[in-house]
Specification:
Shape of chain A: globular
Number of helices of chain B: 0
Strand content of chain B: over 45%
Structural class of chain B: mainly beta
Oligomer: heterodimer
Strand content of chain A: over 45%
Number of helices of chain A: 0
Distance between the termini of chain A: 35 Å
Structural class of chain A: mainly beta
Largest sheet of chain A: 7 strands, mixed
Order of helices and strands of chain A: EEEEEEEEEEE
Low-confidence stretches of chain A: none
Radius of gyration of chain A: 13 Å
Largest interface: A-B, 24 and 21 residues
Mean pLDDT of chain B: 92
Number of strands of chain B: 12
């Protein structure tokens, strides 16, 4: 069972470069999420998609864009990377718009912006 | 505003010893509370959750948590820790405003042989 798959697992960027983090889930979940994890900050929600065709901002959306390509895939794009975006990024999915609170996470993507 | 606080950033226990990880929440109504575990290099996995009913909740891997409304706490416990329990643990509350999880800062558990 693949669950939630994120690519790439590691990436190093220079300031100003762009990149897209890819996420796919094979559990037929409606909702998908992008979080960032920073030391001492826990996980903070960047964007989420309650269902196919919809996206909404979370706590820390600035500097990011997302696309819910279809029910399976939810990508996160950094148009012009900044050192403050150095972080570990997690994609997650859930069945019922997150109301049960049970999220299924990918293994993370570690991004370093120089 | 709803929030979750984990007072302990880092805890070290000996293998076989008991464990209690603290979690305090700020929430007006009855909260939906969760504990997640993150093993090194992995994503988060749900350990247990509390919605209502019995205030002592059993989870996977031998963990349990007790909801105490009077103390606004939802502490995680395990009677005997194994070396494989070394990980980061996150408490979370489901926000009634957004329907999204609000995570605490996390507690890193180190297990001594």
């Amino acid at each position: 069972n693949a669950g939630v798959t994120q690519t790439p697992k590691f990436q190093v960027l220079k300031t100003g470069q762009s990149m897209t983090l890819q996420c796919a889930q094979d559990m037929n979940h409606n909702s998908m999420y992008w979080y960032r994890q920073d030391p001492g900050m826990g996980l903070r929600l960047i964007y989420y998609s309650a269902s196919e065709g919809t996206t909404d901002k979370g706590e820390v959306p600035n500097g990011y864009n997302v696309s819910r390509l279809n029910k399976r895939e939810f990508s996160l794009r950094l148009e012009s990377a900044a050192p403050s975006q150095t972080s570990v990024y997690f994609c997650a999915s859930s069945e019922n718009r997150g109301r049960t609170g049970e999220l299924f996470f990918g293994e993370g993507s570690r991004l370093t912006v120089l | 505003a709803q929030s979750v606080t984990q007072p302990d950033i880092h805890i070290t226990v000996s293998e076989g010893a008991s464990l209690e990880l603290r979690c305090n929440y700020s929430y007006g109504a009855t909260p939906y509370l969760f504990w997640y575990v993150q093993s090194p290099g992995q994503g988060l996995q749900l350990l247990l959750k509390y919605f209502s009913g019995d205030t002592l909740v059993q989870g996977i891997k031998g963990f349990e948590a007790e909801f105490k409304r009077s103390q606004s706490s939802f502490n995680l416990r395990k009677p005997s820790v194994h070396w494989s329990d070394a990980a980061e643990y996150f408490c979370a509350v489901l926000s009634s405003n957004t329907g999204k999880l609000i995570f605490g800062q996390g507690t890193t558990l180190q297990v001594k042989p």
